[in-house]
Structure formats: structure tokens, C-alpha cells
Amino acid sequence: MDKKLKVALGNDAFLPTIDGVNTVIKYYAEYINSELGEAVVVTPDNPNKKDYLFPFEIYRYKSLFTFGEGYPVGWPFKEQFARDIINMNFDILHSHCPVATSYFFRRINRLQRIPVVLTYHTKFEYDIDARVKSLAIRQKAYTMIGKDIKCADEVWVTSRGTADSLRIMGYEGDYVVMPNGCDLPKVNLTEDDKAIIMRKHNIPNGIPVFIFVGRLMWYKNIRLILDAMRLLKEKGRDFRMLFLGIGPDEKAMRKYISRIRLDDKVIFTGMIDDRRVLQYYYAAADLLIFPSLFDTNGLVVREAAASSTPSILVKDSCAAEGIVDGETGFICFESAHSYAEKIDSIIDNKDLLERVGRQAQNDIYISWEESIKRAHERYHTVIDKFNSAPHAPYEW
Known about the structure:
The protein is 42% helix and 17% strand. With 396 residues, it is of the alpha/beta class. A seven-stranded parallel sheet has the order 3-2-1-6-7-8-9, sandwiched between helices. The longest helix has 21 residues, at 368-388. The chain starts with a strand and ends in an 8-residue tail after the last helix. The relative contact order is 0.12.
């Protein structure tokens, strides 16, 4: 049996800040501590933290302020913070963000070399390009992130398509594909269970239900969804499009929905924190609509599959990796017209939707237990490689 390891799981934010990466870290920490060894979350301080809620240790270093939806700006420069981590005697440091966290781990390695794994979850060029207008400053940001990536002993991605973003950041090295898991169990909910959601939102029986789950941001291709819904309405289709989540572009979305006269078709549910309730939403939906090119893994696709709900995705997107059109999901081009045509052609075929949903549940679902066991085995490989060869001078 592999030796139990002590793992530092680092990120630039942690709960109560809610996003996909923090969800990943939560499940890593819970499963490692319960089954595989010891894990400590390493993250900047958050004034709204409720660390007593978690059955694992959280080490928080100084933050300067929070912005947006509760994201702290970490200040990892004090040497004592690095000494604290060294004194915890970690076997491996696992960074989940190539910004403050990876920079912090680089500082630690100036004092004592500890093997570092970096999981590259996010296509950072989307955020940088949206916020930075100067090409020179944008390129400098790419270079800084690229340097943090290169300093890891091994780089992981959650899908092969993510490698394109690594290359944009200037990383030309090897990487390992390490997909995320899903915490929702495989279930086949009853019609009565599904009816709970229909009654909650006053949706008549027999009306097709579509859902989007995630942060409400334009660069997740949400305008494409709305334009596709407009085309379906113009064809005389009745439906309800549910948006599950919150985000900085929600207000702009609502304005656009009013402008294209979709107010009677679109429902905003807000954040659904209760995972059992979330599974009811997935089960009640006929399709998960997820045209995002930003997301690197499409965890929501696996969550939908847990409830035998198929997804409709953009060809060659990361979320569509491993999906076979008409067998484990539906694939179309990145256009509102293509989405509307595809939905219009399949939505009345309930047998097809049920068959594809069941096949998705059987073929593409992966549990967190399976995912984290695979990652833990790879930790041992990284440590063995690290210990078997002399280390080059640490890049700074």
C-alpha cells in the first residue's frame, strides 16, 4: 500500500468564496483526510471565513482586501508564512492557482525544496484580456503566470484542451491530464421528485426545461444561449430556461433578456447551495445547455450525467472532450443558430433524450473517490521522481 502523505492544497481563495476550484479543493481535503493521509488547505485570509465548519485544517496567511464576489488578495511575502509551511513537514505542495499561491510555493522552495504539483484549472487569458486593455501589460501578466507554471515539478490539467491556454502563457513543457470528479451520486429520481422543481417555478407539465449551472459571466457564452432561446421562441417553441448561479454579469443579462423579449421564458434561481436540491434541478431538466469555451473541465456535465440528464456542448470545447454526439451528449457549433437547430431537432424525442442521458451516466460519470485516488497515486510518482534525481537550481 502506498505511504500516506501530508499534502498542502493551495489556492488564492477558499470557501466561503464559492467557485469550481474551491469545490475541487474541498473534496480533495475531505477525501484525503478521511481515507488517504492528511491534507491542509493553504489560502489567504478571508474576513467572512467559517473555518470551524470544516473537518480539516486551514492555514490562512495575510490578505490585503477582498474584491468581486469575496476573492481575497493574498500577501504571501512574509518569511514567517513560508517557515510555517516548512515546519508542517508536507510531503508535497499542490497549487491550484498559478498566481499568489504558486508564487508563495516558490518562496517556500527558496528556503527548502518540497515537490510542487500545479493543477491549471482556469483559462486565465479570458480574465486578463477582459480586464487589461494594454497589450504590453497583458503580455507581462502572461509571462508572470507562465513563470509560476514552469516552476512546478509537474503540471496537471483537467482536460487536454486546457493545454492551449498553457501555451498562451508560455509554458511548453509536459503535462498530465487529471480530470475532476463529481460529488453527486448516480440517481434515477422519480417523476414526483422532478415535479418539485416544476411546481416551485410554476412550470406547466410537458414544457421542455433547460438549465445552465455556473457563474453568470458573458464569457461563458451566455449570450449564445439567450440568442438560441430567442430563435426557439420565434419558431413557436414553449420552454423554460433556468440559470442556476450568480455572477457579475447577471444585471446585464436581465437587461438583454428584456430587450429580446424572453422575460416569460427565463428564470434565475440564484445560487443553489443544497446539493440534493441541485440534483433535483438536473433531473427535472431535459438538457443542460453549456456552450462555454472558458471552462476547462465542465464538471457540470458530469453532475448532469449523475441524474441521467444529457448536455448540449460546443464542438472541440474542453467540456465536450469524451462526449460522442447522439450517444453520451449532443454536440453543435458555436452559434445560436446551431444550438437552436439542434435543440429543435431533438427536444420532442423523449426516447433519445432518455437513452443519451442513461449512456452519459454510465460512460462519462467519474466520482471524486476515483479522481482523488488517481491524483494521490500520482503524488507518489512526483515525489519518487523528485527524490531520485538532483534538483536544478530553483528558478526565481
